[in-house]
Phage protein
Amino acid sequence: MFAIQNIKTGKFLYGTDYRYLPPHQRTSNTKMLTYSSIAEAAHDFWVKRKCGKDYRIVVLKSVEVKRVIDYYESKNFI
């Protein structure tokens, strides 16, 4: 799994604000976009989000499931 990270702050990219030229990247310590392949991450990095020199693509460790919330239990959160 791959993600885009800001080199200076260590925060992960979770969105892009296209109202500006060049687009402004939205970063967070708690949210991130993940990609299943390096090709997908590179395309998003260069073509779609136009990330600058302050960003890099990183490889993430495997994600482990902490808890499973079933269909009926998830209705309680609405």
Summary: The CA atoms of residues 46 and 52 lie 8 Å apart. The longest strand covers residues 12-17.
